[in-house]
Amino acid sequence: MVARRFRWHVGNLPRCRREGNEEVGLFLAIELLISDYQEHTDESSKAKMNSKSQGPAFRLTGRGFGLLRGAFQAVAVLSLCAVLKSMASAQPVAAPSTPTDARGGRSAAATGFTSKYRPPAPADILRNRAQATDWADQTRRTIVPTMHLVETAHFLIFSAWNSANDQALAKVCEEMHAMLRRQFNISPSEPIWIGKCPIYVFWDPSHFRRFTTEVDRVSLTKNSAMRSDGYNASRGTLSYIVINGVREFGTTQQEATTRFYEVLAHEGTHAFLNRFISSRSMALWVEEGLADHLAATLVPASGSSRKHVEGARYALRRPSAAARLLDKTELTSMEYGIAQSLVRYLIQRDSRAFIRFVEIMKRGASQDRAMAEAYGFNREEFLDQWAMFSQRSLAGRSP
User: Fold this and answer.
1) Interatomic CA distance for residues 95 and 222, integer angstroms
2) How far, in Å, CA of 299 to CA of 304, rounded?
3) pTM of the model
4) 126-276 belongs to CATH 2.40.110.10
């Protein structure tokens, strides 16, 4: 059955190529192929469990099925690439009506966008999905049986919540994705992540802690992860998000939900920045200030919406606080608010210049050089302009 479905998926590729969507066709074929194989292995596993003749010689552990699935996916990628190669030589395609880039999409001049991501390789897409799914399978088998997949256009959400929350969870994740695209002027055809970004969501904090040590093993290198509300991490080309047990995010369900959305937007921004232009880190105040700003934008009722006001007031009374912040590698809670206030000022002053500011740093330049090139001022001028802006902004606010 899998072989017949494979031929059917591959048969769709010539049509996608004629329509200029060859990469989309390839991606969909791979996605559907994995889904078919997963269903096939699940059905086979159930059949074996129900068979009276099942014996040690016919048993495969979860690890064994994972290895077989990985091997099958590798063969699928090689087969699909061979098909595409033969299609390219056998079916020449007419030149598109608009300028194209190297991937066949519309050029930056035609769309108003510039390419900010390297095109993902099909093998990387498959490898990332296999890794993410294997972690979820291990978590479901050994930690929390309720973990299940909620798949959207851009995310693989592995949720341990009640399935009644699936639709709302999918909606907020896609809203976050759209917000990031708007903030950085990214074309809808530009791939932010390699495949889809995995998000692991827990209800019980003890399940989160076990995931960090037994599955992700992030605590071996990042002890603070176990004590956090969530974190973003990467393994090779896989960038993923893990959210702590939401049950303890608030004293009421509304408080817990609001805090969850805030953490999701904050960590989602970090996952995005890890892929934007390069994996280089920027000045910490920029990364954390932007993550809190976008969390406040997506979740107006969150604590992040108040942080920047408190931070600005504090820094205006102590001018050295903002100056010291620019070079710090660890931030206090108040400094998160100051950082968000600084980022808000830069975005409101010139949102396009802010994109340029981030791009220059992600290409390896210092924050001082990026500030000079994008905005035309040095640190002292930046802080003076921010102080005047903040004083005006806070003038009409109650203390």
Assistant:
1) 50
2) 8
3) 0.68
4) no
